Amino acid sequence: MRMRFITVVFVWQLSSLLNVFAHNVALPAPVIAALQRAKVPVEALHVVVMEANGSQKTAALLSHQVTTSINPASLSKLATTVVALDLLGPTFVWRTPVYIDGPLRDGVLQGNVYVRGSGDPRLVVERVWLLMRRLQGLGIQKIQGDIVLDRSAFDLPERNPASFDGEPLRPYNASPDALLVNFKSLVFQFIPDRAANVARIHVEPPLAGVQFPATVPLSNVDCSDYRTSLRAEWADPLRIRFAGSFPAVCGEKVWPVAYAAPQQFAARAIAGMWQQVGGQLVGQVRDGVVPANLQPVFSVESPALSEVIRDINKFSNNVMAQQLFLTLSQQARGAGSWDASREAMQTWWRDRIGGEVPVFDNGSGLSREERISALGLARLLQFAWGSPTMSELMGSLPVSGLDGTLKRSKSQSIAHLKTGSLRDVAGIAGYVDAANGKRLILVAVLNHANAQAARGALDLLVDWAALQKP
Predict the structure, then answer these.
(1) Order of strands across the sheet with 246-247?
(2) Is the distance from CB of 311 to CB of 180 less than 8 angstroms?
(3) Is there a single domain that holds both residue 270 and residue 362?
(4) Do 74 and 133 sit in the same domain of this protein?
(5) CA distance linking residue 70 with residue 384, whole number of Å
(6) Which of 391, 387, 407 is nearest to 399 (CA)?
(7) Of 345, 275, 436, 334, which Cα lies nearest the Cα of 118?
(8) Is residue 5 part of a domain?
(9) 49: domain CATH number?
(10) Residue 243 C-beta-side C-alpha neighbours within 13 Å
(11) Residue 7 domain flag
């Protein structure tokens, strides 16, 4: 009899817990109407609204298909950044040490310079320039040997940047690298000079051995598609050309482009920057490993993790997220790899969140393999809300209608939300200020071929959540 009582109690408790989140609370009518206009069935929407400081037994204000595993797109960056804040801490920095091997006489280094990458996600042009200036600050004007790039901090297979969506020149497809220089991307700035009837072209970073045009003719066409008007020719990575023209009415424009030969980018950029600051190099820039007996002469330090995750989340930077994802295993094992970082994420989830463990892939959401439920994302956000690094995560999220990927949001509410977008995925996840001053967690994801057309439904869910008084 006692065993039967225990069984009944267990079944009642389990069913009560499942009923809190598993049953479908009716969707707001305006949301359903928006889905119908976009020809997206309600079954494609996965949404939960719950109190940020609630417990696992607190009833959700809205719950619709919350336990189904779905593709989260860039919402997976939330897991990467929350885990990194918890394991590495908000003050964590990446250091890129520089070594010299050989005597220095009269400004000439009789040997090699070594640069060891550590996975720094923001080794951009300005900081590479600083590295070169600090090298000159040691008294080095001429390197008789080589500049050697050590990428051993990451153990990665080669990846074709066109493999995800056939767009290898899109910066979001750049592959991670232990020595990631300027996201493996060029930045073209077009500056109209009406007197000369040309647009002057400025390119960063300079790439050794690569020819760039200095100008392109101006035209009188409209600015709706200036990139097509330029008729860029990328086929020869050593000679980039613009066979068209630049619309004068555009004013100044900036166009970031992933370099067509990404495996050569770091070497060419570092050689080009060394030349630009007036340095001479007798040898070459090549890959290699720092000799075991050398000590660094200085290190270039990244911004703190709390600042780096602002770029990752506000602007949904894929390669930065992947660098951070790989850093989790690099810090634990000495060399970062996909499998080791997936294992680190899974272990953390079991220890901190519990329940069904998501399918992690590369930490950025640029994946067809990653899977997590809306409830899983909500639990993650609930954990983050109660963690010591809550303010750092909150500050990294786009603010609805104001900045980042939410700048163009039509929601009228105050919300800090990460966005997710792929060809057939649209989603938001984060925190919404409710009418009574409480903070709510909102996770809403659409997995459907017409997902992008139904983004209005997501804005309506934000506004619905903001009106609630839990």
Answers:
(1) 246-247, 215-219, 198-204, 185-193, 253-258
(2) no
(3) no
(4) no
(5) 21
(6) 407
(7) 334
(8) no
(9) 3.40.710.10
(10) 6
(11) no
Task: Mark whether 275 and 363 lie in a shared domain.
Answer: no
Whether residue 14 has pLDDT greater than 80: no
Domain span including residue 154: 94-302
Do the beta carbons of residue 400 and residue 427 sit within 8 Å? no
Q: Assess whether 270 and 386 both reside in one domain.
A: no
Residue 143's CATH number: 3.50.80.20
Last residue of a domain, one of 284, 302, 320: 302
My answer on whether 362 and 241 are in the same domain is no
The verdict on residue 3 lying in a domain is no
- Are 71 and 425 in contact by the 8 Å Cβ rule? The answer is yes
Residue listed under structure tokens 């065993």: 3
Encoding tokens for residue 273? 């920057």
Which helix (H) or strand (E) segment holds residue 450: the answer is: none
Q: How far apart (Å, rounded) are the C-alpha atoms in residues 387 and 391?
A: 9
Contact, 74 vs 420, CB < 8 A? Answer: yes
- Are 228 and 324 within one domain? no
Domain count, the chain: 2
Nearest in space to 284 (alpha carbons), one of 383, 144, 406, 403: 144
Q: Are residues 83 and 126 in the same domain?
A: no
Separation in Å, CA 111 to CA 135, 136, 140, 456: 14, 15, 11, 61
Sign of CA dihedral 173, 208, 154, 121: negative
Burial of 469 (C-beta count, 10 Å sphere; 0-12/13-18/19+): exposed
How confident is the model over 201-206, as a mean pLDDT? 98
pLDDT tens-place string over residues 334-356: 999 999 999 999 999 999 999 99
pLDDT of residue 48 exceeding 90: yes
pLDDT at 456: 96
User: Per the domain annotation, does 2 fall within a domain?
Assistant: no
Domain-terminating residue out of 302, 336, 358: 302
Q: Are 323 and 118 in contact (CB under 8 A)?
A: no
pLDDT bucket at 385, cuts 50 / 70 / 90: very high
Residues 6+ apart with CB under 8 A from 451: 40, 44, 424, 425, 426
Residues 266 and 341 in one domain: no
Q: Are 370 and 76 in contact (CB under 8 A)?
A: yes
CA atoms within 13 A on the CB side of 115: 28
List the alpha helices (DSSP H) in 353-469: 374-385, 390-396, 455-466
> Can you tell me the distance from the alpha carbon of 46 to that of 27, in angstroms, rounded to the nearest whole number?
11
